[in-house]
Structure formats: C-alpha cells, structure tokens
Design a protein that fits this description.
With 132 residues, the chain is an all-alpha fold. The protein folds into two domains: 64 residues; 43 residues. It has five helices and no strands. Helix 1 packs across helix 2. The radius of gyration is 24 Å and the shape is flat.
C-alpha cells in the first residue's frame, strides 16, 4: 500500500518533468524538495515513467496539431476565393510551398523506411564504413 502512495505522489512530479519543467520547478510544483526530485530521477523506473508520460503528451500534441492543420488548410482554400488578388496569390503560394514540403517529407520517410528494411534484411554490416 505504501508503494501505491509513493507512485501517486510521484504523478505530479512526473507530469511537471514530462512537460519540460526544470527539476527545481517540477519539485516546487509537485511539493517535493529539489533534492528529493533528484533522488527520484536516479531511479530508472521513475525516469521510464517520465519518458512514457512525455511521449503521451507529444502524441496528444501531434493529434491537436493535425486537427488544427486541417482547419488551416480549409482557411487557405477559402482564401483562394478572395476578391483581393494579393490574398489569393499569398494563399496559392502558401499551399504550393507546403504541398512541396509535405511531399518531400513523405518521400524521405519512405526512403528511410526502405533503408531500415534493407538494414534489417542484410544486418548492420551493410552500413559500416571502413576506416582508411
């Protein structure tokens, strides 16, 4: 039971650290001394929990950004119908630039996936560079 209490008390510290607070800030927010926070960070399981929460926060942020990106595209598409030439031009330019950037990123992602697949099939030796 005492272990569960300790885990629950750690939640505030874990969340503050996962959000990018300094150890001092996180300890203060969670009601710990800075020294205790550092001791908790010496525990590999505690660091793993911080990492898991940080990953979950980043995934959530990514989903929110994706949703906002869809709305932003809708705004740009609406601006293509503006009466003002400068606004239509700016919207068109932005759409084209972002389309190229997105396509480039997608192509790079595919190339990396193929390289990783080849590395898995051929072992790590195929990527070793010999020293001259």
């Amino acid at each position: 039971m005492a272990r569960n209490g300790k885990l629950k008390r750690d939640d505030g510290l874990i969340l503050a650290l996962a959000r990018g607070r300094t150890v001092r800030q996180a300890a203060q927010e969670a009601g710990f001394s800075e020294r205790t926070a550092h001791r908790r960070l010496d525990d590999p399981e505690f660091r793993r929990r911080v990492s898991v929460v940080r990953s979950e926060l980043m995934e959530r942020a990514g989903r929110l950004l994706s949703d906002a990106a869809i709305k932003a595209v809708d705004v740009l598409r609406a601006l293509l119908e503006s009466d003002a030439d400068t606004i239509r031009l700016a919207a068109a330019r932005t759409i084209l630039q972002q389309t190229v950037a997105l396509r480039t990123a997608a192509e790079l992602e595919q190339r990396i996936a193929r390289l990783e697949q080849n590395e898995g099939q051929h072992g790590n030796d195929s990527f070793k560079v010999s020293a001259a």
